[in-house]
Specification:
Elements lengths: L1 E3 L1 H11 L3 E7 L5 H12 L4 E4 L1 H7 L8 E5 L8 H6 L6 E6 L4 H14 L3 E5 L8 H7 L2 H4 L2 E4 L2 H12 L2 E5 L5 E2 L9 E6 L7 H5 L3 E4 L11 H17 L6
Parallel strand pairs: 2-3, 5-6, 5-10, 6-7, 8-10, 8-11, 9-11
Antiparallel strand pairs: 1-4, 2-4
C-alpha cells in the first residue's frame, strides 16, 4: 500500500520502520523537513529513492503527497489488549467504536484519540472500518501511535474490561438522561460511541456502566462520530486534569 505525506510517513518510520519497503522523495525539496525525514530513514535502514515530483504524482495521483511517498506493508503490528493494559503505568483511557465503517471516520477518531492521549481504539471485527490507506492518511500519523484493536465480540470485551481491568464504560446516546458535562468519569475509563444515526447496538448499549448525551444547541440532532469522539475524549481529559473535590 502507499503512505504519503510527512506526518504519515514520518510516524511510520518512527514506530514501524520495518513495514516500509521503499521510500520515494522529491529531489527538488531540500528544506529542513525533508532533511530530517531522510536522516530518519537512513537511521532506520529504509531504502530511499530520490525522484522528480512528476513521478510522485504518478505514484500517488490526486494525493497531497508533499514530495514523500512510501510503499509499505498494509499491516501495522497487532497489539494484544490485555498485554497493553497490564503494561500501562496509569489508568487506561480507551475509545470503543461500534458500527463505525467509514475508514475516514476511523482515521479521524484515531487522530482525536492520539491528541487526547488515549491508549487504544477498540472495535469489533465484523462491523468496523479497516485500517486501510484512507484511514491511515486521515489519521495523519495517529494510526502508528494509537493501537487499533479489533475484537471478535465487543460485548464480551467490554465485560472483560470491566471485570478484569476495572474500566468504567461510558456510552453516548442521544436519549440519555444525563448530559456529558454532568457525568463524573473515573480515571480508568472507556468511552463507547456508535455510528452516526444508528448509534450503539443493543448489547453494546446495555454493557455500558453509564449513558450520557452530548448537549446539542443548534438544529442538527447529532455529531459526526469523529467529532463526538473528540468532544467526549477531551471532556475526560479535562476531568482528569481537574483537582479532586476532596483536595
Amino acid at each position: 500500500m502507499l503512505i504519503y505525506g510527512f506526518h504519515s510517513v514520518g510516524s511510520r518510520l518512527k514506530r514501524a520502520a520495518a513495514t516500509i519497503e521503499e521510500l520515494y522523495v522529491d529531489g527538488g525539496r531540500q528544506d529542513p523537513r525533508m532533511r530530517e525525514l531522510l536522516a530518519l530513514a537512513k537511521e532506520r535502514g529504509v531504502a530511499t529513492h530520490v525522484v522528480d515530483n512528476q513521478r510522485l504524482d504518478r505514484m500517488a495521483p490526486q494525493r497531497r503527497h508533499q514530495g514523500v511517498v512510501a510503499i509499505a506493508q498494509a499491516a501495522i503490528p497487532r497489539v494484544d489488549l490485555d498485554e497493553l493494559l497490564d503494561g500501562l503505568g496509569e489508568p487506561p483511557l480507551l475509545l470503543l467504536l461500534d458500527g463505525v465503517t467509514d475508514p475516514r471516520n476511523l482515521g479521524a477518531c484515531l487522530r482525536a484519540a492520539d491528541g487526547a492521549g488515549a491508549h487504544a481504539v477498540i472495535a469489533p471485527k465484523d462491523r468496523a472500518a479497516s485500517l486501510n490507506e484512507a484511514a491511515i492518511q486521515t489519521a495523519s500519523g495517529a494510526a502508528e501511535s494509537v493501537p487499533y484493536v479489533t475484537v471478535t465480540n465487543l460485548a464480551r470485551t467490554m465485560r472483560i474490561l470491566q471485570d478484569e481491568h476495572g474500566v468504567f464504560l461510558v456510552g453516548t446516546a442521544d436519549d440519555a438522561p444525563m448530559s456529558l458535562h454532568e457525568a463524573r468519569m473515573p480515571a480508568a475509563l472507556g468511552l463507547v460511541l456508535g455510528a452516526e444515526g444508528q448509534g450503539m447496538r443493543r448489547l453494546t448499549r446495555e454493557g455500558c456502566d453509564q449513558l450520557v448525551r452530548i448537549p446539542m444547541a443548534g438544529q442538527v440532532s447529532s455529531l459526526n462520530v469523529a467529532v463526538a469522539a473528540g468532544v467526549v475524549l477531551y471532556e475526560a481529559v479535562r476531568q482528569r486534569a481537574a483537582p479532586s473535590p476532596s483536595g
